[in-house]
Design brief:
This protein is an alpha/beta fold. The protein contains 11 helices and 14 strands. The chain has helices at about 30-45, 60, 75-85, 95-100, 105-115, 135-145, 165-175, 175-185, 200-205, 245-250, 290-310, and strands spanning about 1-5, 15-20, 50-55, 90-95, 115-125, 150-155, 155-160, 160, 190-195, 210, 220-230, 235-240, 255-260, 270-280. The strands form 3 sheets. A 6-stranded parallel beta sheet has the order 1-4-3-2-5-6, sandwiched between helices. The protein has a 6-stranded antiparallel beta sheet with strand order 9-14-11-12-13-10. The chain is elongated, with a radius of gyration of 23 Å.
Length: about 300
């Protein structure tokens, strides 16, 4: 998959392009439907299935305090999922003041001047251009002028409501991982590199693989039964998401500390993904390390039972 960052970089693309357009925060089922329309159009009519998206949320320029936390904080993860969905090319634009000032027609004209646009697929509620003035109706008018096809994809419904990034954030914050996963089309999970910690878990007979959980939306601080994957193997485990108040006070760095059931060996520096299955308890400050150690034993036993029962 080829990744571009500016319109002018598209000028070397000779094949017609079938674009899926959107912020695609989280790449949930609704987003996947829009992308599938572009992929199917390219397969049917010939051309390149592509995604046009943004490196920063458009709200960051006009109302930065309103920018929602990302569901998928790492671009690498988003690009990997786009490739799995069949996308061959991505244009990821910076939402600059110039881009924000473009009228709907100026935006489409620049795109059509940069490459051969065969199709633009969007969600039915897609808006674009200065002040979000353009909608699907605007896009259809421009399509007749610039000679491309428009595909407007209806929303995906779950429990009678539209699948949306807002609903997914709400589910994650409530630790409702089943609902979040159903809307994402895959499990909610943390991904990151295993880093060195203070080795306290090892002293308490509960060694942990530590990682930074990222800057995206997070569930409540606390203890979770989890399933983890590292170095091609899968493990059950128990994880704590939080700031470790017993040893760090209230100002500790947010970390995910995962005790794996099994013997993973040396995994420092390895990429690990951790899927939370059930929230077990809130993070708490204990009067002593002995009491913390006793609680860790209870947490591990509880998590093992959850895993045995299958969530």
């Amino acid at each position: 998959m080829v990744i571009y960052q500016e319109f002018k970089e598209l000028q070397g693309v000779s094949s017609p392009v079938h674009w899926a357009m959107g912020m695609f925060d989280g790449l949930h089922l609704g987003h996947a439907g829009v992308i599938a329309a572009a992929v199917e159009g390219a397969a049917r009519d010939g051309g390149i299935p592509a995604v046009l998206t943004f490196r920063t949320h458009p709200l960051a320029r006009v109302r930065p305090e309103s920018v929602p936390p990302a569901i998928m904080a790492a671009d690498a993860e988003k690009f990997a999922l786009l490739e799995e969905l069949g996308v061959k090319m991505v244009l990821t634009l910076e939402f600059s003041s110039r881009l924000a000032s473009m009228s709907p027609e100026e935006f489409i004209k620049e795109l059509c001047s940069s490459c051969r646009v065969a199709e633009i697929a969007v969600g039915e509620d897609w808006h674009f251009g200065r002040g979000r003035a353009g909608d699907v109706g605007t896009l259809r008018l421009l399509a007749s002028r610039y000679e491309f096809r428009v595909t407007a994809v209806p929303p995906i419904l779950r429990d009678g409501e539209r699948v949306s990034s807002t609903r997914i954030r709400k589910a994650v914050r409530a630790a409702d991982f089943l609902q979040a996963g159903e809307m994402l089309g895959r499990p909610y999970r943390w991904k990151g590199t295993v880093i060195h910690g203070r080795q306290l878990g090892r002293l308490l007979n509960y060694p942990t693989a530590n990682m930074k959980p990222g800057s995206g939306v997070q569930p409540p601080h606390g203890v979770y039964a989890v399933r983890a994957r590292v170095k091609g193997a899968e493990y059950g485990g128990v994880a704590n998401l939080g700031v470790r108040p017993t040893v760090e006070g209230a100002g500790g760095e947010l970390l995910l500390e995962t005790h794996l059931f099994g013997e993973p060996g040396d995994i420092y520096g390895e990429e690990m993904e951790v899927e939370p299955l059930r929230f077990l308890r809130a993070e708490a400050k204990f009067p002593s390390l002995d009491e913390l150690k006793n609680q860790l034993a209870l947490d591990a036993a509880y998590a093992a039972e959850v895993l045995k029962r299958g969530k």
